[in-house]
Amino acid sequence: MHALYPLKFEPILKEKVWGGKRMSSLLGKNIDHLSNCGESWEISGLTGNVSKVRNGFLAGNDLSELIEVYMGELLGEKVFDMHGHSFPLLFKFLDADDDLSIQVHPGQNMAMERHGQRGKEEIWYVVHAEPSAELIIGFQEDSSEETYLKHLQNNTLKDILRTYKVQAGDAFHIPAGQVHTIGKGLTICEIQQASDITYRIFDWNRPGTDGELRKLHTGEAAEVIEYKAGEHKINYPDTPNEPVELIKTPNFTTRLLSFYQNLELDYFFVDSFVVYMIVEGSCTISCPGFSDKLKTGDSLLIPAEINAIKLTPDHSCKLLETFISNQA
After folding, report:
1. DSSP label of 183
2. Band of the pLDDT at 117, cuts 50, 70, 90?
3. pTM for this one?
4. CA distances, 203 to each of 6, 98, 185, 225 (Å)
5. How is residue 117 annotated by DSSP?
6. For the domain bounded by 244-323, which CATH number is listed?
7. Rounded Cα gap, residues 19 and 30, in angstroms
8. Is 97:21 a contact under the CB 8 Å cutoff?
9. Which tens digits make up the pLDDT trace of 245-291?
10. Are 107 and 224 in contact (CB under 8 A)?
11. Per CATH, is 12-224 categorized as 2.60.120.10?
């Protein structure tokens, strides 16, 4: 059997009523066939949206087929033991030319009980922000289901939610149960548990791509919302040429690599696949028997059996590095 190598996948592009054109202008995606591209699913194992390899001898094979054949060599032994043939994470770019719906995702227990899927914890990294762009996560102060439903009924829900003014480079943690939305003028990198369960709370009375108002999930949402206020912006040091941890939870670890010098990375003790998402600049990635160029908007999966990686920047590069830790 041939040795594994770092894998690129064909992006799965999604038409969204709130989408725009920056997926092409900023991230280099071919969106000519879409009017408003809102999402690029970079690496996905979800049914109906399974990513296909686009480089090397495995080109044309999908991620599920690779897991079936390579198992722990691809995912990492501990990851395979825990998740089996199900790829545990989902990697996306999002481009909002209009406000997304206000929404919430259920946690692990409720998601499994209701839908037979994982919960949805996620992290956002802002790739691009127009002036005055903002997003919403959680409540301004501790709230309650009664207060939430009253404001929802009165179309004043935004008045009690926490709004963040944002700029490129900002990062946010969104645990399951947090009410949230992305505002217009933002291009975001989203890393999350592999789940596509969304409870839509308010959609600005806007029709969907089919001309009909999209379904709301008021009752389901009220049962899973976390009404306690909290801080969701991630404050991290500006430390070039070494990994900077943004988040570490039982579900995944994400670090920012901002570098203008060569980096040599050792993943021997990680025992997990590693995913790179390039958010600024470009670089060359190399390991024994493999070398390739990565530019802004590219994503790459490094199989768990590959331990040593070298990154050579073209001037400078920023990427998000994600894997599943031994412990949170």
Report:
1. P
2. confident
3. 0.95
4. 39, 11, 17, 17
5. S
6. 2.60.120.10
7. 14
8. yes
9. 999 999 999 999 999 999 999 999 999 999 999 999 999 999 999 99
10. yes
11. yes
Measured at the CA of 63, the angle between CA 59 and CA 65, to 5 degrees, comes to 85
Q: Residue count of the chain, please give it.
A: 328
**Which alpha helices (H) appear in the chain, and where do they start and end?**
22-25, 63-70, 72-75, 77-83, 108-115, 145-153, 218-224
CB 39 within 8 A of CB 19: yes
Tokens of 9: 């996948």
Is 327 a residue whose pLDDT tops 60?
Answer: no
Q: Which residue has the tokens 């127009």?
A: 130
**29-70 confidence digits (pLDDT tens):** 999 999 999 999 999 999 999 999 999 999 999 999 999 999
Average pLDDT, the chain: 94
- pLDDT of residue 220 exceeding 50, the answer is yes
Residues 6+ away with beta carbon under 8 Å from 222: 145, 148, 149
* Domain boundaries of the chain, sorted by first residue: 12-224, 244-323
Place of tokens 């949206």: 49
Q: Is the pLDDT of residue 328 over 60?
A: no
**12-224 and 244-323 share one fold:** yes
Q: Which amino acid, residue 234?
A: I
* Higher-pLDDT residue of 308, 2: 308
What per-residue confidence (pLDDT) applies to 1? Answer: 61
Beta strands 274-287 and 299-302, pairing class: antiparallel
